[in-house]
From TrEMBL:
Domain of life: Bacteria
Role description: Exerts its effect at some terminal stage of cytochrome c oxidase synthesis, probably by being involved in the insertion of the copper B into subunit I.
Family named by the database record: Belongs to the COX11/CtaG family.
PANTHER family from the UniProt entry: CYTOCHROME C OXIDASE ASSEMBLY PROTEIN COX11, MITOCHONDRIAL-RELATED, CYTOCHROME C OXIDASE ASSEMBLY PROTEIN COX11-RELATED
Localization in the cell: Cell inner membrane
Protein name: Cytochrome c oxidase assembly protein CtaG
Location (main, coarse): membrane
Its membrane topology: Single-pass type II membrane protein
Length: 188
């Protein structure tokens, strides 16, 4: 075997070895990138900084909850739409007693001829009332998928913690409902 043939054979083995290493590195990088989304969601959820995954979905009503009938809180309901739909509460406000389990309903109508995926993000006024507003069930806990021209009635089940400061007499619960980019399915 000549020197050039031996050299060519060595280069071929080296090239194959390098190719194998590059394939492994590319596969590891793809796997890492693929795992980043659930890992990011888990980290955000654990740190309490992910606004799309609401932790109060795990709130359980205490067995001994006392309804404070000596106080009334007005809960004003508001809706903002960022996308191809109509979104509104079915009532503008409701009066509740602290500790009382209450259900309100929001309505959304997809006005387009395509399926859309959307998410609702809540906000509260005054901001100081947020820790006392306990949602037991809410459409904001997960993304919603609406078919073409579909209408949905979506409930929010909540109670106001009796520890709410006495000076707070009104709480505004507002939702912004927006389309999640890339999640919509084309009409088939």
């Amino acid at each position: 075997m000549s020197t050039t043939q031996a050299s060519a054979g060595r280069r071929l083995r080296l090239n194959r070895s390098t190719l194998g290493k590059l394939v492994v590195v590319a596969a590891v990088m793809f796997g890492f990138g693929y795992a980043m989304v659930p890992l990011y969601r888990q980290i955000c959820e654990e740190l309490g900084i992910n606004v799309l995954t609401q932790k109060d979905g795990t709130v359980k009503m205490p067995a001994n909850t006392q309804v404070d009938r000596s106080r009334s809180i007005v809960v004003e309901l508001d809706a903002n739409a960022q996308g191809p739909w109509r979104f509104r509460p079915t009532q503008n406000s409701i009066t509740v007693h602290p500790g009382e389990l209450t259900t309100v309903t929001y309505e959304v109508v997809n006005t387009q001829d395509r399926t859309v995926a959307a998410q609702a993000i809540p906000s509260y006024a005054p901001q100081s009332a947020m820790p006392y507003f306990k949602k037991v069930e809410c459409f904001c806990f997960k993304q919603q998928t609406l078919g073409p021209k579909e209408a949905k009635q979506m409930p929010v089940v909540f109670f106001v913690d009796p520890k709410l400061p006495k000076e707070v007499k009104t709480i505004t619960l507002s939702y912004t409902f927006f389309e999640i980019g890339g999640a919509a399915q084309p009409k088939g």
